[in-house]
Amino acid sequence: MIRKCTESDFETIYTIVNDAAQAYKGVIPADRWNDEYMSKEELRHEIDDGVEFWGLADDGELIGIMGIQPIQDVTLIRHAYVRTARRNQGIGGKLLAHLRTLTDRPILVGTWADAAWAVKFYENHGFELVSVEEKNRLLQKYWDIPERQIETSVVLRERG
């Protein structure tokens, strides 16, 4: 069942993010990696900045989460994570399909350039990479991330 996450899900969201983000260890630049990939303070900041998390629950337990954030004239997909033990079961695809129904704005996704599985996931779900120039422009306009992260990220948009 897909449902909107509530404040009572905060600890679970934090746990899922940091479990699933272990896939980035050794893949993303070492200077961007932290053993605690996202701190509770960072997660709180993201929520306070308008990221609305949705989760897929199995027997009442959240097993995957994905955020959606309207910014100016677009909608961003943010922080898409599935518990390590539940990967490759279609959970991310179900969450993405649901979030796409929540907006009529263009949807953008940012991810690490070297996270080939993440890029492939979005390409398999109807997104395409933008040019490096467009990526830099979009990341500076819609995201609040450090320059180093801009250098090492990609942006995908819905094909169309």
What's the topology here?
Blueprint: E1 2-4, H1 10-20, H2 40-48, E2 52-58, E3 61-71, E4 74-82, H3 91-100, E5 107-112, H4 116-124, E6 127-129, H5 132-142, H6 147-151, E7 153-158
Parallel strand pairs: 4-5
Antiparallel strand pairs: 1-2, 2-3, 3-4, 5-7, 6-7
Description:
This protein is an alpha+beta fold and 160 residues long. It has a single domain, classed as Aminopeptidase (3-Layer(aba) Sandwich), CATH 3.40.630. It is 34% helix and 28% strand. It is built from six helices and seven strands. The chain has helices spanning 10-20, 40-48, 91-100, 116-124, 132-142, 147-151; strands spanning 2-4, 52-58, 61-71, 74-82, 107-112, 127-129, 153-158. Strands 1-2-3-4-5-7-6 form a seven-stranded mixed sheet, with helices on both faces. A hairpin with a 2-residue loop joins strand 2 and strand 3 (61-71). It is globular. The two termini are 29 Å apart. The mean pLDDT is 94.
Summary keywords:
seven-stranded mixed sheet, 34% helix, 160 residues, single chain, Aminopeptidase, 6 helices, globular, alpha+beta, 7 strands
Report the major sheet. 7 strands, mixed
Instruction: State the fourth-level CATH superfamily.
Output: Gcn5-related N-acetyltransferase (GNAT)
Structural class: alpha+beta
| Content of β-strand | 25-35%
Q: Please list the strands of the largest sheet in the order they lie side by side.
A: 1-2-3-4-5-7-6
Return residue spans where pLDDT drops below 50 for at least 5 consecutive residues.
none
Instruction: Report the radius of gyration as a whole number of Å.
Output: 15 Å
Strand and helix order: EHHEEEHEHEHHE
- The number of distinct structural domains comes to 1
- How far the N terminus sits from the C terminus, by CA atoms, comes to 29 Å
- Number of DSSP strands? 7
Count of alpha/pi helices:
6
Corresponding CATH architecture: 3-Layer(aba) Sandwich
Tertiary shape: globular
